[in-house]
Amino acid sequence: MAEIILNAEERTEFGKGAARRIRRADKVPAVLYGHGSEPVHLTLPGHETLLALRQENALLTVRLAGAEDRLALPKQVQRDPIKGFLKHVDLLLVKRGEKVTVEVPIEFVGTPAPGGIVNEERTHLALQAEATNIPAHVEVSVEGLEVGAQVTAGDVALPAGAELEDPADVLILSISAPAAEEEPEAAAEDEGEAGEAAESEGE
Question: Domain Large ribosomal subunit protein bL25 L25: where (predicted)?
């Protein structure tokens, strides 16, 4: 996963009013913390940060004037529920070679056996991976799976260097048969019987 450089500035204004002013200037309030260090309050460039966070578990290089570059992962992202703009970002400091626990998207590939329907029970899988080598996704194949088949977390082939954090027996997907449809003739017969019963009651 490529590193993304964000040029940050130290934030000296706090409170709702300050946050609104920052966002009006197309910037995002943020805080950088981790490894026992004091939290650093920052502003990040709005457009670049929005683009960067479209990628899950984006590895960010936070560049601050007068300080060494620091690597970080997005820990919590607050978005406006209606307009979708970034309201605040929490960043977690990481180091090269350090292993972190992340939720990685699952990508389902292939087609089950004829008549099978894929029930996706999970959309993400918890993995432990090196901070600088977090997989963009994990693939789970449903190719040729028959009705009744199940895939658990322990069945998933993980990318090199990644370890499973979820319990191995967590259900990822199952294959079921299509729901039985009531025959039209049978349904018509039922309606006819119901009508006859209603007429008898009326008598």
Answer: 6-91
Whether residues 168 and 153 share a domain: the answer is yes
The mean per-residue pLDDT over the stretch 128-149 comes to 95
Does residue 77 sit in the same domain as residue 108?
no
pLDDT of residue 194: 53
pLDDT at residue number 26: 92
Supply the pLDDT for residue 190: 57
For 55, which DSSP code? S
Number of domains in the chain: 2
Question: Are 135 and 164 in contact, with CB atoms under 8 Å apart?
Answer: no
Is the pTM here over 0.70, yes or no?
yes
Domain edge (last residue) among 59, 76, 94: 94
Exposed/middle/buried for 157, CB within 10 Å: 0-12, 13-18, 19+?
exposed
Q: Assess contact for 80 and 135: CB atoms under 8 A.
A: no
- Looking at 71, 94, 117, the residue that finishes a domain is 94
Query: Which tokens sit at 38?
Result: 């004091």
Higher pLDDT, 18 or 60: 60
State how far the Cα of 42 lies from the Cα of 147, in Å rounded to an integer: 52
User: Under DSSP, is residue 47 helix (H, G, I), strand (E, B) or coil?
Assistant: helix
